[in-house]
Every structure is written in C-alpha cells, then in structure tokens.
Amino acid sequence: MYKYIVRGGNKIEGRLSIRGAKNAILPIMAATILSESTSIIHNVPNISDVYMMIKILESIGCKVDYNDDTLVVDSSNINCKEIEEEYVRKMRSSIIIMGAMIGRLDYTKISHPGGCAIGSRPIDIHLKALKELGIRIEEESGFIKCYKDKMVGATIKLEFPSVGATENTILAAVLAKGTTKIYNAAREPEIEDLQNFLNAMGAKVKGAGTNYIEIDGVEKLHGVEHSVIPDRIAVGTYMIASVMTGGRLEVDRVIASHMEPISDKLRSAGCEIEYTKEGLKLKPPKIIQAIDLVRTSPHPGFPTDMQAQIMALMTVANGTSVFHETIFENRFMHCAELIKMGASIKYITENICMVKGVDKLYSASVRSTDLRGGASLVLAALTVNGETEISDIFHVERGYEDFENVLRGLGADINKIEEIEK
Ligand code: UD1
Questions:
Q1: Residue 112: is its pLDDT beyond 70?
Q2: Does the pLDDT at position 422 exceed 70?
Q3: Whose CA is nearest to atom 24 of ligand 1?
Q4: Number of folded domains that form the chain
C-alpha cells in the first residue's frame, strides 16, 4: 500500500501532455475481442485499470503486448468463454466485455459486477438491451449467462443514457444481423472513440456523440490501428491543480469540444481558457470565484467524474457553491476528507451539498475514498502550507498515469511512499 505526501504551496505550472482516456481505452480493449486478428492501439495510458483489462483479455486467450504507450492485442484465438469473477469484482467497468464476448461467441458467462463505493450501479439497462438483440440471458447466483441462439438488429430505447449500456449494446450489435437503432444513447466523447475504432475494423456504426446511434451489422471485423483520444478528465484535474495554486498551464493535444463542459465551469470561476492549435492555455484568476451551481449530468453536461475535483477548487473560492450530484447516489465521500482539511461543506441532502470557500485549508491525514475523490484530496493538499498525507492511493492509480511524477514535473512537492503497517 502506498500513500502520497504532499507539501503544498508550489505553483503547478508549465506544459503538459496527456495520454489516452481511461474511459475510451477500456471499451476499445473490449472491442478487440470482436476481431479475429490483431489490433494495434496507440496513446494507451499506463494505469492500473489497463493492466486489469490486459489480464482479462489474456485469461480468455488473447495475446497482449504493451510497450511504451502501444498495446497490441491478438484476439485470433479466444479459448475461454467465461470471465473470472475476481476480475469483475476488482474492476466493475469490465462488464463492458459482456457485449463484445457475446458478439464474438455463442455463449458467455460473467459475474454480476454489483455495486461499488460510489453507488449501487445496476446493469438492468445493459441486460435489457442485449435481450432486445435476441440474446437469452439467465441470471443465477450472482452470475450472468448469455446465450446467442440468434442475434438480430433491434430498435432499443435506453431508459437512461448509460455510458456502459450504450457501449455494450454497440459492441454486441456490430456483429448482429440487420440494423440496430439506439435511442437515448449516451453522448460521451469516449463512445465516439469506440465508434471510430470499430469502424476502422470494418463495422458500420454512426451517430456516436449524439443520442441516436445506428449500427448496421457486419459478418466479420478485421485488424486495426488506432490512437486513443486524450483524457479530458485527467486534463481537467491538472487544470484545477493550476487554478488552485495560481499557476499557468498549457496542455497539448486536447480536443476542445470534449473540454467545454469543464472549461465552461472554470471560466465561471474566473479562469481564462484559450484553445490553440497545439491544445489549450489556462490563466488562473487572482481570486477564485465561487460557481453558483455545479450539477452533474450526462455529456454534454458537467461530468460526474470532475465533481470531486471542482469541489476541491470551490473549498478555497470566494463565496458559496451548491453541488448537485445526479449520476451516482453516493459520490460525496470525499467531502468528509475535505472537511478534515478545513473545508466548509454542509450536506443538504445525500446528493446536494453547499461548499463555502475558506481562506486556507490545512494539513491532515486523509484517505482516498475513490478514484476522483482521491484526486480531489491531492488538489486540496497542493494549496496547504504544510504536509498532507493521502492514503489508499491505489484508487487514484486506477485512472491517472504517473500522477505524482506529472505533478512534480509541473512544480509540486509530492512523493509516493510505502505505507508502514501499524
Ligand atoms: C461510465 C464511466 C464513469 C463515469 C460514468 C458516468 C467508464 C469505464 N466509466 O461508467 O467513469 O462516471 O460513465 O459518466 O466509462 N445505471 C443503471 N442501470 C444500468 C446502467 C446504469 O441504473 O443498467 C445507472 C448507474 O447506476 C449510474 C448511472 O446510471 O447511477 C450512470 O451510469 P453509467 O452511465 O452506466 O456509468 P458507467 O458506464 O458505469
């Protein structure tokens, strides 16, 4: 077990280049299962979730090679139809493998991912969509068995624009007979990247990025070479680090439209953000202004994956902000840890809280509660004149490549050290 030791007070400034998005590479890795050939993927982030997905692919017979930022997956020989329970338990998002497995095979078995720290996270929408494609599903003792007696295109209206359900449906439908129409699809940029990857493999998917996606099934997919889109959430996190410490930041290779929901809120806090040919430039305000309301919603709304980080920013803003988390029912766990550092946060309901900016946060020993919550504590610690200890950083390492070294490169005094068991 490792922890971060952060001595705050330094400006986070300079130039940053960000690797591919966690939420894009995971479904793309699942998609490699659909091809009976080799997929070459560039700009792959070096994060623990990618290693977990590599293990899953290897467990079903894929040959995987990961070097620098390039991942090569040879999926010509899938020799196992079941996904070990342990993997799904450790990485809930591995459920997106289900659509690809049943797309390629006649049967698959996967354990029910269950809830996680941030919510109960049912998969009813995924299962309903697969059933509508003709997949027979049996659920027993926490496992899901999918049988492909037939798989035919269908008209599917998702009850909620779930990212994972949209991806699972696309992954299955690319090899279904006929046309699948998905209404109320999630519009997240990572789904567009999945579409681009699949189309480069010979699939016929259109509409990703909008709430209507149409898929014409094809018989077979072939090898592909693709580069993953930059991680908008990682970029947003480092932008907030700069704003909180008064540093200027330049980020290479961002996609402006992907950044807008985040940039828009940062402008409300007083930041100047300019998109350039290379990426973006951020100039922080002298005084961080409170943003009246931060309400998370599906893309292009404000992303739930940035809620904790922008809350860290608001803890030191001038004024009061209201936070309304609408995507996950338990995504305020970082609040209690921020309060230990002197933040003024009042719970209104389970999903609404009020954050009143304070002049200064102070040193404390805090614990990462989840991936983004952990990142928010590091951001808060960067402002503290003194030493903050942040434990359970394995959460953070699931989604941020080399977090402490990237921050150190931008001026932070942060170290990762092994925790001594008491
Ligand atoms: C993905 C992202 C995650 C992000 C989330 C919302 C990946 C790997 N993860 O997660 O980082 O926070 O989108 O942007 O891409 N729901 C149901 N039934 C379902 C499916 C979802 O009730 O069948 C609910 C969930 O419990 C949750 C909400 O819908 O409350 C959003 O979930 P979803 O969009 O599916 O998120 P994920 O795909 O799990």
A1: yes
A2: no
A3: 121
A4: 2
